[in-house]
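User: Predict the full complex structure for these chains.
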Amino acid sequence: MDRFTKDEIHPKIIQKLLEDSDITIDDALENEMVLNMGPQHPATHGVLRLVLKLDGETVIGCVPDVGYLHRGYEKMAENMSYHEFIPHTDRLDYISPTANNVAWVMAVEKLAGVEVPVRAQYIRMIIAELARIASHLVAIGSFAMDVGALTVFLWTFREREKIMDIWDIVCGARFTNSYTRIGGVANDMQPEAIALIKKFLEGIDNNLIECEKLLNTNRIFIERLDGVGVISKEDALSYGYTGPNLRATGVDFDLRRAVPYLQYDKIDFRIPTFTEGDCLARYFVRTDEIRESAKIVRQCLQLMPSGEIKANLPKRVLPNKAEVYTKMEELILDFMLINFGINPPVGEIYHAIEGSKGELGFYLVSDGKGNPWKCKIRSPSFIHIQSLPHLVKGRMISDVVAIIGSIDPIMGEADK
Amino acid sequence: MGLEAKLSGDGFFVTQLEAIINWARKNSVYPMPMGISCCAIEMMAAADPRYDIARFGSEVMRFSPRQCDLMIVAGTVTYKMSHVVRKIYDQMPDPKWVIAMGACTSTGGMYRSYSVVQGIDQFLPVDVYVAGCPPRPDNLLNALIHIQNKIGNTRAKEFQNKKRLELNVIQNN
Amino acid sequence: MELKEIIIQKLNEHFPDAGFEFSEYINEFNIKLDKKFIQPVCKFLKEDSELEFLLCEDITAIDWARRKKRFTVVYHIFTLKHNYRLVLKCDVEEDDCNIDSVTSVWRTSNWQERECYDMYGIKFNNHPDMRRIYMPEDFEYYPLRKEFPLMGIPGSLSLPKK
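Assistant: Here is the predicted structure of the three-chain assembly.
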């Protein structure tokens, strides 16, 4: 742990740290320690940087510093067509890429007024829920690793690899899928993929119980999390919490239920909530959500009708590849769509879905041309990181690691 | 830059010593996982039971740069991050190698934008570039094998003429 | 009575001078108002017991480039009571590039306003911590303004020495 000198910390950060006390910076360096955590730190889940003010081992102040992964998504979106941006959404929340794909194309479809066939909607639900399972598995695994249980990490990654295999068959890519298209999905779900999904769903409950056995009865794990990083219901809402982190405080809010999209209103599922609002509750919400997501996928497989997977709107939706190579009309349409975009009408919309971290929203402004005039990404991780100073204040330095793990930030979407 | 370089500088023949040191070095490469974005997840997947980087003696991921030989830069490096990456590289002891994992690390990839460095070779010496966005774990293992071959072929005299610049940087820090 | 009508009635009653313009586009209810009134209107919408817009989802801005009032600051707020989303909009001129902060209403707006400042250069009055958030502190430009080139301005961001 380095003790910083005055020159090494940016003056504005120091100013922020010291503003609620009347001591000078020289006094502070004598009595209290300013500790830099990150951006390269195993527990910060990427490149999050925290500047902590410590009194002994107690954290008395914290300033998060983000932007180390700021890739300029919103500027890039203004310079490319709506189709071109689909691969970029994979890399926002890179743990659950297909959920981001779904969010983006649904926003564009809302803007352009495209109706999606029912089968495609069910396929989208399946991949979005699988993405949620994958994301929560990584969240639990890396969270357990942060507090010292390495085995769980290996086991949850083993389960996640099975989802990667499914995606590998469904769309040909293991990790960054870009599976959805405006007006539908890229290709129909293969029978092999459905067989693999069924096999995965058979095993997930038992395998999850196996992982839970390692954690739920582990005294070290429980005691490191119980009562740590507590946030009340009112504070959580004021900080803009959504997703599992909000549900761990007792608010029964889920966009799948509140503003049903796709076919979620036809599905029977429970919204797991806990009232404690601490790290342990956030962990329990995630494990329960994996079970609920598995339940949703099971129902989707049953309810999924056969039929088209793309809307029949030649001006908006890409034609099938086989037809592009054989028919003149389709070739022209494909060329026009790729080069000039889909030209939605002038207007602006906001569409949000329940991503794995929380509410993932896209705000799009169209000026009638092929590329968006403005695109804003409402990313849940960005909002959650903001509350870190509130959560870590008064806790020990080792709790900081547990708290970061429990709110599960992904810097790709936090920094955009 | 170890014993063998020192000895050969003093006029000893150190071929056997060199061979044994290289053999040991290449089969126990300690990676420094500089996980920045998406590629970091695939790097983690390379360490999981299926791909099992332990087969190549590199399962010991060290988050402290002082204990590492190999830096795997996994993810988009922005201008703000580049100073951090360079600082960590400077802190690693010699001899050291760098893998640029993924398209955006190697060339900027799909991120043609104002905040992304268009290839980390603008400020770091890179030994192996890995293609893919992100590369599959098998691809990373392949890069590791390339690094091992490179280490196996390293001769002590290559270090001899190298200036001690990097060492000075560490001491100044 | 629909929620929309209740909102219109209540706002007109409490803020007669705010210059409201109501519109609807694809099931989204938009309210445009004078930027001076943004803080009290937000406070009212949050604290009114019938509405309870507790969740501030998003704050951002739009750069219209050629319009006289160059920027529009957009607020998306959500009420859990009725599961209803509302869009508030305020025009901001380039010469007078500031607007009141709503951090005292929703704490989440702190970073969102900082992001807005970082990307567009719109200052938020009474904000507790008006700094850049993504770009380095010494960066001089505002990347999401339309005149800023996609590949940036050469030399504006430094690289370490090789």
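Residues 1-68+379-416 of chain A form a domain with the Enolase-like; domain 1 fold (CATH 3.30.390).
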